[in-house]
Amino acid sequence: MVRDLIAAGAAAVALAGAADPALQRFEAVEPHMGTLVRITVYTPDAQSASQAFRAAFDRIRSLDAILSDYRPDSELSQITSVAVGRAVHVSDDLFTVLRASQELAEATGGAFDVTQGPVIRLWREARQTKRVPESAALAEASGRSGYRQLHLDVVNRTAAFDTPGMALDVGAIGKGYAASEALEVLSARGIRSALVAVSGDLAFSDAPPGQRGWRVQVHSEEGPTVRLPSVLELTNAAVSTSGSSEQHLDVDGRRYSHIIDPASGMGLVKDITVTVIAPHGLEADGLDTAISVLGAERGLALIESRPGVAALIIQRSSAETTMLASSRFRQLAAQHGATHAQGVLR
Ligand code: AMP
Ligand code: MG
User: Which ligand 1 atom lies nearest to the CA of residue 242?
Assistant: First the structure.
């Protein structure tokens, strides 16, 4: 899995290992978006690295101020009350995220749906109270949810909502967007080799000097039936991983995921982990959650319809673990699979 285990609070530190003597490796970690963000850059000196870190972290901080569903003052939180029954202009960032979300909602028949905020909140509370939400409460929340109740105007860049009490939650797509946007800030400063990890959402540019790519662990399965390399060496891409059991509620022997199926309002009960590789984090992060809801078969069909996107789907039951790779994933594994797994990003 693509998980980030780096500790918080690290300042910019030069690390050994860069092949090009003109470039050194620097790394910094800061807390943002309710998680840790780790940035790695190759620059000629510490000063340019520090300035780049500041600019990239500031971009993520400003995105959080727009996209957070925890903050009542975020644009995302405000828009659902000010734009009921009337079109209101939204910022470029919010519009970009909402537009990609609505396209994915259409493509998945609503399996991916950022307007499920009211339902997602009930499940968040349920993880605190350790009780499955009441069906009446779920039905009421579902009535205030649904992507068909959100209308975007691409020309005027406005949003309008049909029903009072709606709530957006872009937790399934915002971190991937932020990772790629922060990487863009680094690229604009002339940094060609960098990696941004917003928790498990990675975005990276050219390979570190002297290396074939950024080493990304894409699964941790073992055994004779596993034929895919666990580490890929990749460049200029985004990688996101979504796990249905990552945050969960256990009640009466059932494990309910933090990912909900909008068709039923229920937390997923299947154990599925999806890793998506795409050109931009907006796509990779949205798709990993969408596939988790759709399941392996429909999820793979969605991936195969998008050239340049790859997915690995791992489904576990008490009897067996199945691993399904899209054709692009198998291609990448054949071309970029690493022979040994040292120094991986986890
Ligand atoms: P991820 O880790 O990328 O799969 O995102 C999980 C988060 O997405 C959850 O914590 C919710 O905030 C949100 N979410 C849950 N279910 C859905 C869904 N069906 N469509 C869109 N977002 C969802
Ligand atoms: Mg996601």
Answer: 4
14 alpha carbon to ligand 2 midpoint, in Å?
32
Which CA distances in Å does 323 have to 64, 275, 346? 34, 11, 19
Residue 345: predicted pLDDT: 52
Q: How far apart are CA 59 and CA 29, in angstroms?
A: 14
Question: Is the distance from CB of 40 to CB of 26 less than 8 angstroms?
Answer: yes
Q: How far is the CA of 169 from the centre of ligand 1 (A)?
A: 8
3-state secondary structure at position 77: helix
pTM: 0.92
**Residues, Cβ < 5 Å to ion ligand 2:** 172, 242, 285, 288-289
DSSP for residue 345: B
- Greatest C-alpha distance within the chain: 64
**Overall average pLDDT of the 149-177 stretch:** 98
> DSSP secondary-structure letter at 148?
G
